[in-house]
Amino acid sequence: MEPSVKSSSIESLVRLALSVQNYRATVDAIGLSAYLNDPMLLRDLVEKLPFDLKLDWARQSAGLPRVNIAVFDDWLFRVASCASTVMPVAPEKEVCTKEKNPRIRLMVHNDSSAQPPCRRCNGAHKLEDCKQFLELEEPGRWNFVRENKLCWRCLGKHFIRHLTSKALG
Fold first, then answer.
1. Interatomic CA distance for residues 57 and 16, integer angstroms
2. Is the dihedral of CA 91, 96, 99, 103 positive or negative?
3. With 0-12 CB in 10 A as exposed, 13-18 as middle and 19+ as buried, what is 19?
4. Residue 11: what pLDDT?
5. Radius of gyration of the chain (CA)
6. What sign does the CA torsion over 70, 71, 74, 80 have?
7. pLDDT tens digit string along 57-108?
8. pLDDT for 98-121, tens place per residue?
9. Cβ distance 167 to 140 under 8 Å?
10. What DSSP assignment string belongs to the chain?
11. Alpha carbons 49 and 12: distance in angstroms, whole number
12. Which residues contact 33 (CB under 8 A, 6 or more apart)?
């Protein structure tokens, strides 16, 4: 999340507003809208505001029957939009990048529950649990591993020589 908003910096206010808006959109998109009712996160977000905006938020939220991050997001976006019309948005400092290829951050969700299919029968189990593989005689298992260039220790796709495996007998 963004650092605290400086009272003299519209850029930091806009960044916070966009961060809250992105959080809300993401939570809605993945169907976890209940996270918008997190009072501790809402308190942390309000703490990032300068005193005058905290006071404005207190006035705004005082008359509302229900306050959550969605309500805060709507209010903060209006405040940031109004501030943008009054104060020109200028970069806080010039950033000089000497790199030709700047680094990009990418969030990746790795679904570790998805298991690759069995290399022998394409079933939904590991090769070491495959009935067809286990029914092979030991030389047949060794040949299958060698032909498919599998690791002799873990039966994975990397091929390491001079290792033994319990699964091979």
1. 15
2. negative
3. middle
4. 83
5. 28
6. negative
7. 999 999 899 999 999 999 999 998 888 777 655 554 545 555 566 666 655 5
8. 556 666 665 555 555 566 788 899
9. no
10. ---PPPTT-HHHHHHHHHHHHHHHHHHHHTT-GGGGG-HHHHHHHHHTS-HHHHHHHHHHHHT-S---HHHHHHHHHHHHHHHHHHS----SS------SS----------TT--PPPTTT--SS-GGG-HHHHHS-HHHHHHHHHHTT--TTT--SS--SS---GGG-
11. 10
12. 27
Question: How many Å apart are CA 70 and CA 83, to the nearest integer?
Answer: 20
Cα distance between residue 14 and residue 22, in whole Å:
12
pLDDT band of 161, cuts 50, 70, 90: very low
Residue count of the chain:
169
Separation of alpha carbons 147 and 133, rounded Å: 13
Rounded CA-CA distance 110/78 in Å is 36
Are the CB atoms for 142 and 168 separated by under 8 Å? yes
pTM over 0.70, yes/no? no
